[in-house]
Amino acid sequence: MKDRIDGALFKEMVLFGAAHISQHKQSINDLNVFPVPDGDTGTNMSLTIGNAASELRKKQPVTIDETAKITASALLRGARGNSGVILSLLFRGISRSLKGQSSMDGIALANALQEGVTAAYSAVMKPAEGTVLTVSRLAAKRAVEAAAEQNSVEYVLEEAIKEGYAALADTVNQNPVLKKAGVVDAGGKGFLIILDGMLSCLRGEPMPETSDEESPAVQDKADFEQFDTAEITFAFDTVYIVRKHREDVDLTPLRAYLNSIGDSLVIGEDDESFKVHVHTNIPGDALNESQKYGTLELAKIENMRTQHDDLAAGRKVQSTDDLDAIEQELENGEECESGERKIAAPEKKYGFISVCAGDGIAAVFRDLGCDAIISGGQTMNPSTESILNAIDQTPSEVVFVLPNNKNIIMAAQQCQDLSDKQIVVIPTASVPQGMAAMLAVDTEAETDAIAEAMNEAIHNVTTAQITYAARDSDIDGFAIKAGEYLALKENDLFGSNTDIAALLDGLAQTAKEQDAEFITMFYGSDVSEEDAQKAAAIFSAVCPDAEVSLLPGKQPVYYYIISIE
């Protein structure tokens, strides 16, 4: 039985935990009570700790302090959704508790788990019972008791997990929503599955197998030993990622241009972004040309000639991996001794960032004054780091962030401790709320006055949405079958039906009851203009006195997003 562990073993434990939840993420997703195709808990927690695993693989930490710090920093930057944020906070507390320690025994583990719980609870305004908070709290409490019985990391972790599963089983009784659905809390189960993986590492069990679907398709490093320096025609190995302006962007002209200024060109793409690998002598020109097709997100440029010379001389070969040593690390919201992020100099007082999906919706937010659009929302919640990067690149003193999704609000709020800029998160839970908030902006006003007006505006709009059921479910008396149309009103289930027109009519009736004056309908990428016109006609017929506007939102997943004012 392992009584004490060092940083190297703790690293392996985190890697095991990440692999374990990756293997079980769908079973966690299936616990999500609401059947909409959302950024589910298992996926968000897996992606969050997966970011930590990726960072740890690049490093060889020796002390427990080093490993915990790397893990906590990567989790925070990679946190997705509320469950990912809470997971990052649990490990952030663990890192604080282990600061300055070279190894960890059972007592130190118990104290670290307790500190993790404290960090997570402090970030939640109204902590509810029957959640991951409950599970982690009771598991940590048992860990303290177990450490007094036997000062062994393995014993303490084993006992904490046992108590955690007992607490998890009781979440179905503590949370009314879970009780109706007859399931346990998804976040609590995800946390315990990660701890299960960490325990299996201590016991010497084999690493869980995971798919390699997220491995990059483009090789990031050239093999410098295979050629002489004189043979290097194009010196700079250039790799970068660009998020497309629109899904149907044609990269043929870009391929031709890049081939004209370099060689070894590979471009991999999906609907949202593309990744370029090219050898060239003018990497700046390659980046500038590529930005005509989207927004540059990440770039890596290495000089293959100097790398080869270093290798031939027996010197350490410099690469962009060395930048990790000076990358900014955050502890207690303050900068450490590492380097600083590149932050856009302020050119104005106020800037605005919106999270949304769909070119049409993004265009409206830009027209309303948003400086940056973060692609995301349902199905894929952006990470804290993605939001932070957008904040850094916004050239203003104060940055207002519109999450436009209740599962992104916490991730956005974490950025407030990670940036020197003043960040104001307006807790918009939907696209219509975000647009209403932007319409209320008066850039001549003071920051507090703008925030107050935006917060007030989000309460003056009603959001209705139509999507589909991702799974069978039973909520509030609705027996929902996978594939049925779902209507939501203010993120609560309004109804389900195999006939979308019936749901549209029901939502139109509620708009009539509200004496709606303005109704704006954004139709999704899977809806034809003809069908959208029919949907708008339903609202016009039911609400003849309202001004009904129809716009192509081009959003995925949601057939219609409807703003009612």
Can you describe what's shown?
This protein is 45% helix and 19% strand. It is an alpha+beta fold and 565 residues long. The strands form 6 sheets. Strands 17-16-13-20-18-19 form a 6-stranded mixed beta sheet. Strands 4-5-3-6 form a 4-stranded antiparallel beta sheet. The longest helix has 23 residues, at 7-29. It is globular and about 75 Å long. The model is unreliable at 211-231 and 321-339 (pLDDT under 50).
Query: What overall form do the CA principal axes indicate?
Result: globular
The number of distinct β-strands equals 20
Number of helices: 19
Measured between the Cα atoms of the first and last residue, the distance is: 63 Å
Unreliable stretches, pLDDT < 50, 5 or more residues?
211-231, 321-339
Oligomer: single chain
- Using only CA atoms, what is the Rg? 25 Å
Helix content range: 40-55%
Tell me the fraction of residues in β-strands, as a range.
Answer: 15-25%
Q: What profile does the largest beta sheet have?
A: 6 strands, mixed
Rounded mean pLDDT score: 85
Structural class, please?
alpha+beta
Strand order, largest beta sheet? 17-16-13-20-18-19
